Each structure stands twice: as C-alpha cells, then as structure tokens.
Amino acid sequence: MRTRVLLADDHRLVLDGVRRALEDAEDLEIVGEAVHGTQVLPLVNRLRPNVVLLDIRMAGIDGLTLTELIRKRFPEVKVIVLSIYADKEHIAAALNRGASGYIVKSVNPSDLAPAIRQAMEQTVYHALGMPEPTRDADLGLTERELVVLRAVARGASNGAIAKELWVTEKTVKFHLTNIYGKLGVTNRTEAARAAFRHGIAESPLTETI
C-alpha cells in the first residue's frame, strides 16, 4: 500500500521542489497540497493522508499549532515539519507538539523520501538537514561525519547507518568518502582503527568491522 502524503507550504516553489523530490518514490503518493494554514485540517479530514509534510510558517494557522491539532484530531496521521529554522528551540517545539520528524529545508532532496518512510515506521527524534560545523579537535570532521565514523567503528553497515541517521545509503557513502580523505585512509577497517586511535570511538575495534 502506498503512503499517502499531504504537502503544506505557503511557497509554490517549495511545493514544486518537494513534489519533484518524491515523484520517483513508488511507495509514496502525494494526495494534496495546501498553501494556507486554514486549508490543512479540512484537507486532512477529506483526503485522510498517512503523513503531512508541513512548514512552520503558514498563513492563517501556523505549523506548530497545526501539528498539535492534527495529532489530537487525527492521531493516526504522522506530521513531519519542513522548515528553514535550524535552531534547537523550533525543533524542540515541533517535536513537543507531536511531530514525528523535523526537516530543515537545506536537506538533500534525495533524503526526503527516506525521512517519510522512517516517520511511518516509528516516531523519529531527528532533525534532518542541520548545518554541520567542523571541529578541529576531531581531525576536521563535521558533526555528521563523526556520527558516521563512530557507527563504522562499532561495525554498523551502510544500510544500518542510513536508517539510524534517517538518510539514504548514497548519503552515507558520500560521508564515508569525505571521512577517508580527511583521515588519510582507504577503507572502513582503517577508518575504524583511526577512530579508536584518536579517541573518537568509545569502544575498541572488533573483528566484525
């Protein structure tokens, strides 16, 4: 059964971009679009989507209020917030109102479909598309690259890492390529050894890596 998705954003350009990003996902079906906050609840009631992909900044009724109303009136419907805001306050507010996920609009479009699938599987407490500041103390790796490297060090596969971080395997491979270059290594085993040697990974290297 295809997952029914309702899009809600007051910018037509964003709606068109999201539609293009999801058009190749055979398991997802966009059943409607809302460009004004007052349109959202009637459309949810009429179309009965499985997921609402919702901007915070909506005219009429804001996205945070809509998230809470949707979860109260239609508890079977998942809400994923899609926003330009990347600060902890907005993310916490959305999750506290009942959102199953939070996506920053700078996210790679290829990660939108996996985000929706993950939200359907369980409540997700991740913000996807956050900026990744570098940390000189950790060999110039970004925060996301550090997370990927630690996962590699504990023996996680690309598929497992992708599901854990709510991204595609292609994105994981992209991070691994950057990690290898920064560490001066050529494979997962060498990367894991470097992580343990530099104190980045908390657990010793095992034979499963």
Sequence-ordered SSE layout with sheet pairings:
Layout: E1 3-8, H1 12-22, E2 28-34, H2 37-47, E3 51-55, H3 63-73, E4 78-83, H4 88-96, E5 101-104, H5 112-121, E6 127-128, H6 143-153, H7 158-165, H8 169-183, H9 188-197
Parallel strand pairs: 1-2, 1-3, 3-4, 4-5, 5-6
Helix pairs in contact: 2-3, 6-8, 6-9, 7-8
Q: What's the CATH H-level superfamily name of the largest domain?
A: Response regulator
Largest sheet entry: 6 strands, parallel
- Structural class comes to alpha/beta
Number of strand elements? 6
Percentage of residues in strands = 5-15%
- Low-confidence runs: 203-209
In the CATH scheme, the class of the largest domain would be Alpha Beta
Q: Overall pLDDT, averaged?
A: 84
Question: What level of helicity do the residues show?
Answer: 40-55%
How many structural domains are formed by the residues?
Answer: 2
- What's the total helix number? 9
Stated plainly, the CATH topology of the largest domain is called Rossmann fold
